[in-house]
Model the fold of this input.
Amino acid sequence: MKEYRTISDAELMKILIDPKKIKILDILKKENLTVAQIAKLIGEKPSRLYYHVNKLEEADLIQLKETRQNGNLIEKYYGIVPETRKSFDFDPALLAENYRAVMDSIVQVLQPGLALLEEDLKSGQKSGLHVDCHTNYSNFTEEEWRGSHDKMIAAIEGPGQKNYQKESEEPDSSSDQEKKDRYVHIILSYRLSDADDKA
Done:
């Protein structure tokens, strides 16, 4: 089971829901890199990334790991701090206070995928874009529905990863827990580089 780090600070939450900062964190989970190297990997100008890297460093999510002399330049290599490897959970009161920022970040992630899906569907043939959407309607109890999320996320994370399972409160013993309701799961996935190419 993954360890959870509960976030109760608004500024830190805004950093962790920013798509560009999430990209940087994902890259640095694999290896220590300079800002220029990160920029090349995500197709961005280094000058536009310094702000994001500084914010991540100020929030203690990444740190300067080493410096190397390269001619007259000193190259700074950044990496994530161990705490950043944990999964994050946001304090419900914090989410309530900042729900608009959270919704905006979700829309920022969904919009490129939906645009790619639309382009792929309109082409009427294989467009070469890596985008897919699957919709499934099912009857679940609340407990089964919550468990379905854990299974999907574990499958997406792949073999060798710890299973995603959020610590939950004591299960409700009421009969509502056994009642089945209709749920829909929508899985949208797309290749980030396709979205970056269209931006």
The longest strand covers residues 131-140. Confidence is low (pLDDT under 50) at residues 160-171.
